[in-house]
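Input/output pair, single chain:
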Amino acid sequence: MNALAIEKPWDPRSLRLPQLITALQSSLLLKMLVPICLVVAAMVIAISIYTPKAVVDTALEEAVVKGLQTADQLRALRAFYSENVVSKAVKDGAKASASYKNDPSAIPVPTTFILDVAQAFSNDQVKVGLVSPFPWPTRAGRVLDDFQREAWDKLSLDPGAHFERREVVNGREVLRVAVGDRMDASCVACHNSNAQSPKRDWKVGDVRGIIEVVRPIDQITRGAQALSWHLVVGISVAGIALFAALSALGLQLVRPLRDLAGSINNIARGRLHERVPHTARVDELGIVARALMNMQEQTNERMRAEEQISHMAHHDALTGLPNRVLFGSELERALSEWLPDETVAVFCLDLDRFKQVNDTLGHPVGDALLRAVADRLQSFVSDRILVARLGGDEFAVIQVGAEQPHESTDLGEQIIARLSEPYEIRGYQIVIGASVGVSLAPHDGDGADDLLKNADLALYRAKTEGRGTLRFFEPGMDAQMLARRELELDLRRALVNREFELYYQPLVNIDSDAICGFEALIRWNHPTRGMVSPVEFISLAEEVGEIESIGAWVLKTACREAATWPEEIKVAVNLSPLQFRSGSLVLHVMSALSASRLKAERLELEITEGLLLQDTEATLATLHQLRDLGVRISMDDFGTGYSSLSYLRKFPFDKIKIDRSFVRDLAETDGCMAIVRAVMDLGYGLGMSTTAEGVETAEQLAHLKREGCVEAQGYLISPPRPASAVAEMLFTQLLSGKSVA
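Output:
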């Protein structure tokens, strides 16, 4: 549990002993006071241990310093007396003697003088003395004690040092400090010439004895200890006072913190407009309170942003419907909640003719149409029906707990009927349709992925069987989709494996009955399926994005093979509308012409009316660029498009090709003859030649010739044949005496 999740101020009286202990253990105040108490106690203990010793040590160090100062003063006094008193007195004829007290005419020697001074200087607080291990006449028989011997041993080796020790003498603790009594220059000559001197080779700096200063320190230590304990008591009192002050301060801190913690807890529970206390304070708690208020505002903004992001992540931005992600999770939830007691139906919807609307009227109109479709689908939504947009013009529906398959059939037919009603979009009246595929759980699967896949297979069947229909999933559909997938994979490999081949169907000049060109038609030599018709794979190539590479190969191959034909024979190549969208069609044509060295006027490119219905500047610009290269442009399947002739005015085609459906019924239907006659008159009036496709009988050819059609193409003349047969057809024509058109 969050430590800040506090709802009420803590009241110890409301708790029993175990609860009280637990509350105390989690109390911030206790957590603050215990370390403070431990720190204060540690400080008092450390001071009580360290302070007495430190004070005593300091006092002893001061006593040692004073002892050394006293010894230095005696040495200085001795040197001054020796150089300035004794030396001058002796030169003046006076006598210096150690027993000067018995000789009124004598003055004391320096050592005796210092001894007397030291004796006079000594009192209860300090005693000074000079001792030496040498047998001086006046000090014969004197024995050094242990301290003096140890001091002599050390100072004789290190004259500049000092020696000290604490001892108990006559019941009192004293500090004994000793320094070396060294020879001065004024003393060396005198001692070396004195008959009573214990040695005659003295040098300056030699230690002849020690100067000892003895100070009682029992009063010092007692005073220092008393002072240290006063300090301990004072510090302890100060520590307790500090503990009390910090405790009071802690209480002042904890109360506002509890208030802030309560606010944080409420904010965490989703109370976005919780009032934050203490924001008016000017201290650090006020800073924390204002920071919490800022955090609250930012949290509110972030929560709103997260809600928006979550909605965007699970809903379609264009229509507001649930997207594929939310649809999948809702389908999983429906399956887990309703199966096996209820049936769950999954619908996949695809709009018929939507691509045509998008291409002809533009994407803004297409988007508005999708929103209108979503609005109509929303009318079917209930507590047991969910509608989603999967992407593009694909929608999906979940229907739960219905009497199946009757109610899913009714719902699917209602959706088709509702979506097929006319739409008024930006001044256009638009009519589309819908195809629906349905899968049922648990019969068609009990997993979301399987149900959606099977509904999509049923949708694919509905679209291939005429659109505007409803189909339920059948087990055999899976095999059909697998076969389509295999065909797609084979198609992607076909170009690399050189499985494509061009066949050529001749175009003849009707008046001269001579071949004037060939139309290139692609064939697929599948390694296992045999020859695959373009009807089966061209639309698939457009769907999977392979049409551009296949189209470029057709252009390159057709130009290369046509370059081997007589100069008067042209070649026609069909173009897919998708090749115009790639932006590289002109480059492909230029590359094919350059690589083959075929003259541009021998290449004829055939397009359908559907391409021009896009009426885009890019399409017209591409056509003009191709025309500028010298390539001829032909409109294929004329008359089967969308009843508008305005594009013939926008772009001057070189040729119009009459669709085979009009040629087929030419001899039987007057309407077809009228249409063919009108097309030829239109072509003549616009300066365009005409070619009739699908000529299969001599009677059809005779009618076309009478009406003035320029060229004909069809099985009556020749079926499409391999490239190797072109030379044979041209040679046969030459032998028959017909000239090439």
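Residues 293 and 324 are 39 Å apart (CA to CA). The first strand starts at residue 95 and ends at 97.
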